[in-house]
Amino acid sequence: MDGYARPMARDGESQSRLPTKVPTGNLAARRGMRLGSVAYEQIKEQLLEGRWAAGERLSLETFKAQLGASKQPVMEALRRLDADGLVEIIPQVGCRVAAYDQQEVADFFTLFAAFEGAIAGVAAVRRTEEDLSALREMHGRIGDLTKEPSADARAHGYRVLNRAFHGLIHRMARSNLVEEMSLRMWDLSDFLINTAGVPQPLSSALDARHSDHEAIYRALIAGDGAAARSEMEQHILGTVQVIRDEMRPAAAQ
Predict the structure, then answer these.
(1) Cβ proximity of 232 and 116 under 8 Å
(2) Would you list the domain boundaries of the chain?
(3) How many C-beta atoms surround the C-beta of residue 178 within 10 A?
(4) What is the Cα–Cα distance from 120 to 85, expressed in whole angstroms?
């Protein structure tokens, strides 16, 4: 599933050791990729996981030490992340995690919902039985995650498996161009969720999110494009309210 985080470990493997797209470690060990690209993937993964809060200052020297790289590939990575809207490079000052106000976040998810809804509508018409079988398995893995007692494992596991679930729906639409466009939007979605200041984001809403997936899955099985589109839009739009609901108890603490 290139471009999406890999599925959850199964058969007794610890959920706290879920794989991510690119492991951390010395860049010299990642042969076959340009150093700047490896640095980009590693730093981006940490941003999507919420390693730093919105607006937090990022240290070039820390990245160089962490990645075992010189300044050039790290700066190349940060410039790409700046173009993605995940960090902000301030000339003569440094680099910090990008920060967006509540209205910007709400606007993004409104547009994102419409885009993903359109993809789901097309997928309902173009999906195959093999597609549905793969989606059913992924949906089952998320169902298993609802029984996980650890909030950390639930939050990280949902981010990984949710990307995989929606990635399968993108494949059903059979459009490489649309899939590539959606990947960047999913990165920004994960980033906004995980830098909102909520510990273990979406972990408390996992049951409801899984229920949303069930409705989307049923619409895809039925080949009902209108229903698939509507269910997907509501699912994505609901993210904003979930974040707000989770921020209230976090702020009270």
Answers:
(1) yes
(2) 15-97, 102-252
(3) 15
(4) 25
